[in-house]
Amino acid sequence: FSATLDRGVDKLVRGYLKDPAVHAVAPAASPVESMDHQVFLLEHADKVGIAAEIAARPGRTLVFVRTKHGADRLAKQLTTMGAEATAIHGNLSQNARQRALAAFTAGHPRVLVATDVAARGIHVNDVDLVVHFDPPHDHKDYLHRSGRTARAGASGTVVSFVIPAERRAVERLHRDAKVEPTAVKVQP
Question: What is the pTM of this model?
C-alpha cells in the first residue's frame, strides 16, 4: 500500500507485483486558485532575519525547510529573535511530533518549522501562511507544502524565499506547478 505513486514507488510496484490494483482518489490539496503565491527574492544572509519578521506576525505560519537539523536550527533562531517556534521532523519521537503539532494547533507557538517528511498528513485549521524557507525538491512537494494553507474554502498565502542561485530552478518549479507567483525583492 502507498498513499502516493511518485518517486520510484510506481517503479517498485511494477517491478515486484503482478497485476496490482490501483485505487485513486482526487487530490486532497487545496486549489491553487485560493492561494496567493509570492516569491521573495533575497540574499542568503537575510533569510533568517526576514523569516523572523514574518514569523512575528499574529497569524499561524508553517515554515518548510530541507533538513532536520535546519528545522531545529531555524526554530531556535526564530525563538531567539522573538518569534516563538517549534520544529517537527523525522528524528523526533512520535510523541514529540504529536506534542509539537498539538501545541501549534492550539496556537502556541504560532510558528511550526517542518521538513517535508514530517509534514505529510499535517492538517491544522487556520494556517494562513506557508513559507518555503528552502525550496522543495519538485513541483509536487511545492503543491503539497502549499496545500497546508487555504483549506476548507479559506484563502491563504504561500511565500517562497529565493536566493539568486535558486532563481531558475524555482521558476521551473512554479511553471511545472502551474503557478504564477508575484515576485518582489526584499530585505530585512
Answer: 0.83
Cβ pair 43, 162 in contact under 8 A: no
Cβ atoms of 87 and 113 within 8 Å: the answer is: yes
pLDDT score at 119: 64
**For the segment 141-183, what is each residue's pLDDT rounded down to a tens digit?**
898 888 888 666 677 899 999 999 999 999 999 999 999 999 9
- DSSP H/E element including 159: strand 156-162
The three-point CA angle 159-165-171 to 5° equals 50
| Residue-wise DSSP of 89-141 | -TTS-HHHHHHHHHHHHHTSSSEEEE-HHHHTT---TTEEEEEESS--SSHHH
In three-state secondary structure terms, 24 is coil
Q: Are the CB atoms for 53 and 59 separated by under 8 Å?
A: no
